[in-house]
């Protein structure tokens, strides 16, 4: 790793993890999975023992420890143990193919792979050229037979903590390097926006190989001494039932999950009284979905961010409807986090934020250190060496409230006019018959590019193309209306629920190749 190429941030020391958390209330439950409960004292002990297990297997400060598997208690133990040793965690997406896993192991230079039984077949297909520790009897026997680590190496907030691989929508995935300081300051940012208590019971339903699963609710809850229950997979009915069974107070999700819960048969009869914090991000939730949660007494709070910011940048404050200046902004991402500075990038220059759409720039102690072993890409990701280029187009009102317009690379330029797919999609999903929609660019002989909208209808719903076009014409300028409207059973998505636009653009290119002059 070329550490000279990485941008480090400094922050005041807040103590070691997880020992300080364990001192908050040693006997309180830290993690719960099924019938198993691990207290903070037990978590501290098991983490220290596992750290010694890793050390005995050759893991040293700065080494990478990969983890492959669904959300589980062992994920947290592995992360904390590696961090206690000064090692770097490299979580891997268990939904990837063996070749992709092999690439990430090689790219990260991992010296050990910890994996759970649910990934046995994937690990076998990968054939990793590194030592493997399987969660189960081998893992438990090793932890029980090893003494706790008593003299861990010094770890600073500027030291790398985790490598989070981006979704790889263009080319090979690259790993964002998040430091201990990045994670700590993101936690502080979250706590400035949401109330978290030691009595909280949070569900971790987003995958822990992603920044949302780790940073939005999970680490802040553990930081305050609350209890986290990791779920191996998402099931709308099971989540709704669990909220009432154990008094869940908080969770983070993607909009699709919130929609699936609202549409579940048990929605109206589910007990949601204990919920006080439901955060979501990735894309705006449909207004009718947000309204359904609000009707049940739960304000869902939209956050905006990215892996490189650990992830939080903007968030809608609690009680936003009552805030002066908030107004009727169902798709706004709110205001910047506590320790976040924002600016805009237009015509090759950094400019103040404002109502004219432009690429958002971000800086702060939670912004990442750079990409793993990619000094040139790391340097190119920043303006003036300190402002991270998000690649997202935003507009910011005079009171600081922001709306995400679209991704820079997703903007369709048709006849010299900019068309933002997110704007068109928001109009499409206003129709009750439309479950979801995605708009991508298609090359066009006359206009350069035109839009192709893939529209997913609700089960049993009917909607003609004429009805769709009439609705679009009533809400959008003519040039913004997609040339093609395509019904689809489902939109392609990645592990975190985001639409895979690269895949959709390739599909559109094939679907409409015959309609363009060659």
UniProtKB/TrEMBL annotation:
Pfam families registered for this protein in UniProt = AMP-binding, AMP-binding_C
Keywords, alphabetical:
Ligase
What Gene Ontology terms for biological process does this UniProt record contain?
Answer: fatty acid metabolic process
- The AMP-binding enzyme C-terminal domain extends over 423-498
Q: Its domain of life?
A: Bacteria
Under InterPro entries, the record lists: AMP-bd_C, AMP-bd_C_sf, AMP-binding_CS, AMP-dep_synth/lig_dom, ANL_N_sf
Domain AMP-dependent synthetase/ligase: from-to ranges: 20-372
A GO molecular-function descriptor? medium-chain fatty acid-CoA ligase activity
Name the family. Belongs to the ATP-dependent AMP-binding enzyme family.
Name listed for the protein in its UniProt record? Fatty-acyl-CoA synthase
Species annotation: Pseudonocardia hierapolitana
